[in-house]
Amino acid sequence: MSINNTQTQGDKPTYIDSMDVGQMIDLMATMGEKPYRGRQLYEWVHSKGARSIDEMTNLALPLREKLQGMVTFTTLKEVSRLTSKIDGTTKFLFELEDGLQVEAVMLSDKGRLTACVSCQVGCRMGCTFCETAKMGLRRNLTAGEMIQQVRCLQQFAQENTPDKLSNIVFMGMGEPLDNVVALKTALTVLVDPKAYNFSHRKITVSTSGIVSKIDTLTELEFPPTLAVSLHATNDRVRSQIMPINKAFPLEKLINKLAEITRGKRVRVTLEYIMLKGVNDSMEDAKELAKIAHRMNCKINLIPYNTGSSEFEPTDNEHILAFQKYLMNKGFKVFIRKSLGQDIMGACGQLYAEHNKEVPE
């Protein structure tokens, strides 16, 4: 089943919460209504959090009656919620209207709450170290399904923590740039002061490196931070663990990142998962430094955290030595905490646990 961004499928209604303000104004125009009606509709959906047309009391009754059969609202059903006893990270499994499921995670770190959300059911990038890749791609999420993940986690934070949700990372299931049209709509709504009002500097989009679509994000009025899954310093290794490298080799990716960071308008983080004996030698550290010198970036080293037996995590002492080398070269280098290890925190693990085959 394929669900588009702001679609009407035959006689099926449009998902109103998958629309930005311009799309709602256009919808109203098709109904013979003035632009301000679209802005009213947008305020109800994305600012006031309305979940039914009946709530929109400043819309004329005849208009509400027409909208009833034309539009509907995205629903997510919470299937599972696990909270880490170690660090307070909470992982959610949501069921979509067609029965498919996606993960979202509330990351808690020193009072800062970050929503990690999904953009696809599964993924077709095929990264060999990723649990989600084993699913393949089932379908893209709509903009509304992305936004509703944020909304659900925002509500959870309000009801269960003293802290406010401040950051969003599109680092859950799926490749964001493989669903870039819906992603752009979601980002536009999330940063809009008249909607969710998140700072674009507090939103990060992670990509495996679809070079041809990077400009789609950097050309936004308020571009997010770009996190690029580098994970190797040469084409041989990167193509082995990340098949996307065959379509967009390292040199092409590095040139694009150097280009977009030249004016410092777009911030880039190089993500580097540490795989024992695969990409963690000191020679790799030297090559990573050469790559990073070509752009304005920071570096995140990521301890491997998944159940796959194909790879082993790099020892902590070696990760620290790797970090030290890069820092001595003048880079900002962080070691990402492996949050939620006791609740299947890595992307795709909770989905896999709930959808594994049960022996007869």
Description:
- With 360 residues, the protein is of the alpha/beta class.
- The chain is built from twelve helices and 14 strands.
- The chain has helices spanning 21-30, 35-46, 61-70, 143-160, 180-191, 211-218, 235-241, 244-247, 250-260, 282-292, 316-328, 349-355, and strands at residues 14-15, 71-72, 77-83, 90-95, 101-109, 112-116, 120-122, 137-140, 165-170, 203-207, 225-229, 268-274, 297-303, 333-335.
- The strands form three sheets. A ten-stranded mixed β-sheet has the order 3-4-5-6-9-10-11-12-13-14, covered by helices on one side. A two-stranded parallel ribbon has the order 1-2.
- A hairpin with a 6-residue loop joins strand 3 (77-83) and strand 4.
- Helix 1 packs across helix 2 and helix 10 runs parallel beside helix 11 (316-328).
- The longest helix has 18 residues, at 143-160.
- The chain is elongated and about 70 Å long.
- Residues 1-10 and 350-360 have low confidence and may be disordered.
